[in-house]
# Entry
Amino acid sequence: MERNVLQQLKEWKSSSERKPLILEGARQVGKTWIMKEFGRLCYKNTLYINCDDEPRMQTLLADDYDTDRILLGLQAISNVTIDGENTLVILDEIQEVPRGLHLLKYFCEKTPWLHIVVAGSLLGITLHKGESYPVGKVNIIRMYPMSFMEFANAVGESQLIEILRSRDYSLMSVMHTKLIDLLRQYYFVGGMPEIVKSYIKEKNIAHIRQLQSEILNTYQKDISKHSVPEHATRILQVLNSIPSQLAKENKKFIYGVLRKGARATQYELAIQWLINAGLVHKVPRVSVVKTPLKFYEDLSAFKLYFLDCGLLGCLSDADPGMMLIGNNPFVEFKGAFAEQYVLQQLVQLNNTPYYWSAENATSELDFIIQKNGQPIPIEVKSSDNLQSKSLSFFLSKNDGIHGIRFSTAGYRKQENMQNIPLYAVETTF
# Structure
């Protein structure tokens, strides 16, 4: 499978400012595979150690940070010789070694020639528990589930990818039905690599749901294992509430959905745990659409989206037939899957999405991003209905700003907005 993050890894390899690399991302997004694939494609040899399966790593790092001694130990454990810049060193599940992350500081300072990448499950949780972090001594790349275009390429639709990249909307209109069908499949399957591989191989819908359930069960076990019981209960309440939160017309996160009388102070840590684990995306509200958007963030209001649209479908117990046949995934669920999908593509493109709502009014914009110092308002329509009351209202009050409406309809340009097909999100920005 081709993953976009591979290009980022190649750029890291060739950078004159390269430092030890931390590859972040939720469990099961494909971190281990891409590190090994990167080593296979770009280096003469790869030294790979899974710190969770190798007890000698605890002993190796127990005494000091003598990099010469540690490098000798890594070679002895792996039976791989480090040949300068020709070798990629991979330390997986680095959080299982208490001193592992701090070691990167010494590799940065004493062995800048070393090409080393580390990753781990729930690494974000480890970093926020007070683990000594090598500030300024590492590079970081964040990895996500497969995007729509990565999914399309994986299932053999490379020609459709070229059409999307061309941004030729007239040609897209010719292939509109096929692209919409592919998008429907992506809503159901999602972008978790193991599930995509199974879908390509078997096209077994029941097995897809089984694999999705197993990943969700793994996440739930992680929550129970890595947090105290009272905290774990609240984390699970937040996680399990996401489908109902997104099914509301107003998708602002409401604590009362969790339980009657719930307050922010009781669930703030639970939400942050899920963010740190990479399982949810928090989209804050901005009260004013001016740049930089961060200046106008309303800390009291936000939306929560899940990691992956396929997993969201499983968590929601959405019927596979409704997801895969006809227009159901677009017209049902009050736009939840369309917004979830767009959010995933936006974060893949390194955007920081916000949303806007008017004070004491019903107008709301699904997302606002910032590009080249300018705000871009985005409205997401789950069908081909092109009524855009909120976006039109907003643009009428903000001269000089151009908006984007994503929908299942074809391309259309208006005075101060464009309608762009949902399947073309990745090539829009």
